[in-house]
């Protein structure tokens, strides 16, 4: 058993490893890898994340078996990893085949060779964002120390993922803004309109087609012009608006 000093040093090193990544995808993959390294009893690991509209997806899994154990929970609509998310709890079981809490998923997981599970909910700003799911072949595989270690690691992992998602979101927003600016410049040069009018044209195309503004801008940048099916209508509307707003000639 590691001493408190050894554990503190280990978590400090893990924190540095996690925060090396500034993108969400490599971060979740690293979380799964480190969980197995940190808890030796763990044979497979999966990381579920909540998405919009009350959906849950497996963001990363250490192995095909780990992913199958996650997928079985989606298919059967039961299991500790889902409950860790929806019930805001963490779950431990050392005999899945006979655990009365999951009468369908437990035997299905046991058929995969998994007999123990430790599901830790991941919480950011008082909101559950997902669950870290440790699977083991042995019965009663996870000790009290394993549970404590996994809980501490989950806190580090949540901070790292939240930071990476924020950085990824900011980077995406900056890239979109830059792309829209380039598209505006193309419209100004090609159709002899001003910058404000160019943005209005892009926004109108987005509204008319229900396509994101940044995606419309990407089409303009790729083609060097408006999409042909939107060209006449969008520019006609913009020309009409400008004509209506212009003062009458003396």
UniProtKB/TrEMBL annotation:
Report whether Transcription shows up as a keyword of the record. yes
The protein's GO terms of the molecular function aspect are: kinase activity; RNA binding
| Keywords assigned | Kinase, Transcription, Transcription regulation, Transferase
Q: Which Pfam families match?
A: ANTAR (PF03861), GAF_2 (PF13185)
Gene3D superfamilies in UniProt: 3.30.450.40, Winged helix-like DNA-binding domain superfamily/Winged helix DNA-binding domain (1.10.10.10)
Which SMART domains does its entry note?
ANTAR, GAF
Q: Where is the ANTAR domain?
A: 160-221
Entry protein name = GAF domain-containing protein
> Which species is this UniProt entry from?
Mumia flava
